[in-house]
Amino acid sequence: MLFASITCNTEEIADLLATGLGEAGVTTEVKQIFAVDAAELSGYDIVALGSYTWMEGELADECLALYHALDTVDLSGKLGLAFGSCDAAYSPYGAAVDLLDDKLRSRGALVAEPLKVPVWPGPDAKERCVQAGRALGGRRAA
Ligand SMILES: Cc1cc2nc3c(=O)[nH]c(=O)nc-3n(C[C@H](O)[C@H](O)[C@H](O)COP(=O)(O)O)c2cc1C
């Protein structure tokens, strides 16, 4: 579970997803995306990538190194999920999540529905994040 987050909203989503994965019996490591080498991802069954969206639909700068390095990593046979905090006051809404989703697909991961959460996750969104983690963990077990 890798994330980029400035004001901690995407980090909180990552933690909630990890809670759901844990409930499904999946041990999860949550790390800042800039601190991870893309080649390390080969050692995991599930790859979840999160980013806030920045200036007119851009991916967080902290994601860029891993995002480009993924072009050399085969993720086939793995489950994937893209997620992030987004704000409908900006356009395009959550475009960074779409970029991560496209990347995971292009590298062969079997991806779940991308998880876009409006700004700070309130109670309903929190439950949606935990549920998404549970569902992802359940798919691995299936
Ligand atoms: C200058 C600026 C540009 C932004 N651009 C977008 C955008 O294009 N699309 C979007 O959905 N959200 C956009 N946002 C909203 C952020 O993604 C949102 O504040 C998010 O909660 C930040 O996540 P974080 O707490 O994980 O850092 C922008 C925010 C700022 C301050």
Automatic annotation (TrEMBL):
Requisite cofactors: FMN
Keyword DNA-binding: no
Keywords of this entry: Electron transport, Flavoprotein, FMN, Transport
SUPFAM superfamilies per UniProt: Flavoproteins
Transmembrane segments: none
InterPro entries with a match to the protein in the record: Flavodoxin, Flavodoxin/NO_synth, Flavoprotein-like_sf
Domain Flavodoxin-like: 1-137
Protein purpose: Low-potential electron donor to a number of redox enzymes.
Family note: Belongs to the flavodoxin family.
Name this protein carries in UniProt: Flavodoxin domain-containing protein
Organism, scientific name: Nocardia thailandica
